[in-house]
Design goal:
The chain is mostly helical. The chain contains ten helices and three strands; from the N terminus they run ααββααααααααβ. The chain has a three-stranded antiparallel sheet, covered by helices on one side. Strand 1 and strand 2 form a beta hairpin. Helix 2 packs parallel to helix 10. The N terminus is likely disordered.
């Protein structure tokens, strides 16, 4: 009887990941928001330089010193394109990152927020004249209805990326018992993805105050809502990297230090503005007061 009881207890025991690792996901999500925004603005700045707009890059927004000629607002298309290409780049290096490491977790969040930035901008084309894609496409005489097709493609891309994120997050689990049932998979993804998707962008607000009247800060509480799709997909997800009884992982102080290094680099490096190309003699870079 005792032997049977002990066997039942072993089967019912769930080996869980420490909450410190979920805290890592919050910090990684905040960094993902920052990296995605910088990549997006860098794309606008590069295309702006190509069409002669004399861009100045900051981590919040890219502004142009030169008035635009006819069609030069096409430079704004560089934002969503750079975000999507950035997502593709980090997605390609993702498999090579060390399994279940905070570095791999940060790469995953960067992938998701890059794709989110690009696809949401495309998705809002019929509804917002202020989106980068809408401003760029306004320079082109589009056939009627094409904006709806473009928006649909953006929405589909966002949904596919959100669904594909479920197995990626489940692969960070410590042991199969932690994600063995639909209920456990829902709980795990809620902890490592949904909560960080809400709190990470709020933590990222530290990087973007002030937001130069762009309205970006007001959008941050809603940036991670697409992860709701990931959460709903988790219970039905059965194919993911099989977890092992890995060494316990807690809060990574290296990740915390990296967070503050990136914070200082953006505040005192990018916030004053950086001319693109950076050797432009017509712009004087200065430290933030």
């Amino acid at each position: 009887m005792s032997t049977q009881t002990n066997a039942d207890e072993r089967r019912s025991t769930v080996i869980r990941t420490a909450w410190g690792f979920f805290a890592n996901s919050i910090v990684a999500a905040a960094l993902g928001v920052v990296f995605a925004r910088i990549i997006e603005q860098f794309g606008i700045a590069v295309w702006g330089a190509i069409v002669g707009r004399e861009p100045v890059l900051t981590h919040v927004v890219t502004y142009f010193r030169a008035d635009g000629s006819a069609g030069s607002d096409i430079a704004f298309l560089g934002g969503p394109l750079a975000a999507i290409l950035g997502g593709v780049f980090f997605l390609l290096i993702y498999p090579g990152a060390k399994d279940r490491s905070v570095g791999k977790l940060t790469v995953l969040w960067t992938v998701l927020f890059c794709f989110r930035a690009g696809f949401v901008d495309i998705l809002t084309v019929p509804f917002s004249e202020e989106s980068n894609t809408a401003r760029a496409l306004a320079t082109i005489d589009l056939p009627d209805g094409l904006d709806v097709i473009i928006a649909t493609a953006g929405g589909l891309g966002l949904v596919l990326i959100a669904v594909a994120a479920a197995p990626a997050f489940l692969g960070f689990s410590r042991h199969l018992s932690e994600v063995n049932t639909p209920r456990e998979r829902f709980r795990y993804v809620a902890s490592i993805a949904m909560v960080p998707a809400i709190t990470g962008p709020l933590l990222a607000m530290l990087f973007f105050v002030p937001d130069q009247k762009t309205g970006f800060l007001a959008s941050l509480p809603f940036v991670g809502l697409f992860v709701v799709i990931t959460l709903l997909a988790a219970p039905q997800t059965k194919h993911f990297l099989a977890p092992q009884l890995a060494e316990e992982r807690t809060l990574s102080w290296g990740l915390v230090v990296g967070f503050f290094v990136v914070f200082l680099a953006t505040r005192y490096g990018l916030e004053p503005g950086l001319a693109i190309p950076p050797w432009d003699d017509g712009f004087q870079w200065a430290f933030r007061p």
